Amino acid sequence: MKKLLLFLFMSSLGFSQTLYKGNVSENGIGIPGARICILYTQRCTTSDFDGNYSIEVVKGDQLEISYIGMKTKIIKITESELVNNSERVAPIVSGDYVKKLKKYNDSIKVSKPSGYFEFNLVNDLQYEGIINITKKNNGLYELKDRYQYDKLSFEINQEYIYSTPIRLPEYQKTHAQGRSLNGNVNYQSSETNEIFSWGPNVNTLQYAQNSSEYYPQGDIENRTTAGAPQLQLYNPNRFFRNTENSKTAFTAQAESWKGNYLKVNFAYKRGNIAIPNSLNHESSTSLKYFRRVSGFGKIETLLTYNDFENNFSNANFGVNKVVFANAVTPIHFDNKIASVLQNGSQRSFSRFENNPYYLSQNNLDKNKSKTLSFNFNHKYERNENYNSVNASFQSSEIKNESGQSFYTAGIIEPNFNNRIEKYKSFSVSDVYKHTFEYNKNVESKIDMRYQQRDLFRHYFSGFASVDDFPKNAVSQNKFDVSQDRFEVLFNVNGSYYIDHAPFYDNEIVLKASSDLNYSSTVKNNLIPGYLVSAEFRRLLDEDLSLKISNTYTEAEPSLQNNNLNFNSLQYRLDQFKQLQNNLELFASKNAVTTSENSINFDLTYRINSGWSLFLNYYYKKVQNLYAPVYALNSVNWSPSVDYKQKGIEFTFEHLGGYYNDFKYNFNLNFTYYRNEVTALLNNESRLPFAGFSDINKNYIVGQPLGLIVGNGYLRDANQNVVIDEDGFPIKDSQPKILGNPNPDFVVGFFNTFQYKSFTLNLSFDWSQGGKLWNGTQQTLNYYGKSAVTGEQRNTINYVFDGVTQSGLQNTKAVSFYDANLPVEQNRWARYGVGGVAEDAIEDATYFRLNSVNLSFLSGYSRSDKKIEFKISLFVNNVFVLAKSKSAFASNAMFSSVDTSGLDYFNSPMMRSFGSALTIKF
């Protein structure tokens, strides 16, 4: 509570009443509208614009000076404070009061020198607050201030974000479509269906006089004309669109003078991703009603509705496939000219590859969802008792469409998938809490829930013609699965406070909680849990505290699960274009719970002036973590993994660093953890859970969570790379551990600078260590599209470090690309589309200026009116410093935490520029 600094001066009369004068201020600035009253009387006044006031007093009076948001001040008038040289108190007449009295023909005197009014007025007479005076039938006057009238307020919010792709792959700019044949490097046109860009230098080619559907500017041929125009080249990175996202929100609130209110909110969002022809929009509305009821109760209801639609949801890996098709296209082939030939088939540089515009224009990965929810809450609080009753209902419907259309390269046959998921839930809960005294309470909670989830999936395949696509199929497979769950969750918890123990001025807060829950879908139906903690305050130092806690929880799996992470595990990397999202995971009727037992030590030290240190150490064991388990072209969701984890989190925080009009806050957070898999289901050696069948993230006993496993080079007993008779390293047929994606530590640094109405926020993050798999780079190497292959393809007489198959030191020199050999035998293409995964492992360390936000807050305020506006300008992903030039550890493959550390033609990372404007009135 702020304190009022009072600078007082007065003058006295020779009479019993004295006109006392003073000033109300804070930090030397006068405060208008402060209320000054003689305690226990109706004699009141208010301070003027400069904080000055005057009021008649007598010896022994006590002045009560108050202002909203500030601590009330009491001043006693003593003999020593009274001085001579004052004026006689004159009657104070309000012009507004006089007008009212004349209107009612009232002959009663307005006031007496004593300050008492002869008509009955309320105590809260404040000339700035009173906005209405009426005379009642009994002759008394009724005054209303601005707080006794209903209020109507509005808020308008507008946000706009413009984003551009960053950290894109680097491509070679010199070599055309083709390969080596008969000792020469030859150009091979689109009609040959050549996929490689291992052809000749583009400077040796020219456009012919004719034109074709593939090359409207003329077919490409070997240069025969001196001075002929060079080929037009295309940068694949120009394919991506800058994105624009906007949000408009409007809120209106009607509030009664008793504090009840009705609030209505409307919001609309619109945007796109970096892929052409993408669009998403979302509309939402909510209606909230709050009412105070008799008996210290409050009622709150909330009704919300949300409608979302996305025409490019990546429900069937569509985004990754588009990025792939764009990246592998030869530098002289313009995909944008057209995506369809006259015969209706796809126009691409090879029938074995896709045109990214064709994929985006014929995209089938769509998502629509609608959600309706209602919540009712009644809170009752009186004396030491608190009770809250809550009832909620939610209904949602999610429609997903996905598939692969006619003429799409890499698919066996066109297909279409229509997936509809409906979800309903209803819950009723009650929370009762009784407080005995400070930090001594007992609380009980009971929550009854019912969930129902219905899944309908219709798969279409085997089309007689293009006209029959997508729903008039010869083969149609349907399945309909319905699941429900009924739960009763019961909890009892309490807190007990001990003062002066075990040492003088020490405090101990003991807390305990016990759960015993029922679920219709859990084995044995009962789910236990508990928490116990002890917090020692003022330990050794009044600002030092230590908290020790032990928590045990059990949780059951969600009813259903569908994502890209485990669906992609069905396919090898070279089958990427065939990927389909067609597998579902279902919780069994007799599910085993996932349990977690953790011990935490929290140390808090508050230094001074807002400086604080927080240290947390934890150790936890998790049993029966659910993971996808493949068997005979199907996948089960099974409690398969046990693991343990320990870690430290350190936070150094400073709040409220003031210097005149300047304020600075910061938060430095350091996180370090280590985990280890302790057991797998059925004693399996390893369990993949995300990625592809030949390069994936895994659970491996005795190893950290999520290790990257894939192929590497064959090595002898001394870990020397084994070289084949051609002079190139041999790829090992057995998978091996390639890297740990978990960082060594993570640091976050958050800063706030505030000067008057301006606020600047800076956010940094630093992730040290860990590994990532850059499969994008490896595949670009295979196709001959990467900058690396452009720079190194002419390398000759290179000797790989290693030993021959007979154990001797390798001495055979090789050329990375020898035109006398088939193209499949060059340095990069010989190992296949994914290369050797070991070569794609990169350091995941990065330092990033995550965001910069500058805002300005201003407004206009009067007793009966208030207008406030805030404008913000911000940039996200300002810059990134990383050892990997294109892949980024936080840019997960399918936008899922499970695939973090895997990069295979991921959606581009974006740098965003935005603005936000909020107006309240």
UniProtKB/TrEMBL annotation:
InterPro entries: CarboxyPept-like_regulatory. SUPFAM superfamilies: Carboxypeptidase regulatory domain-like (SSF49464), Porins (SSF56935). This is Carboxypeptidase-like protein.
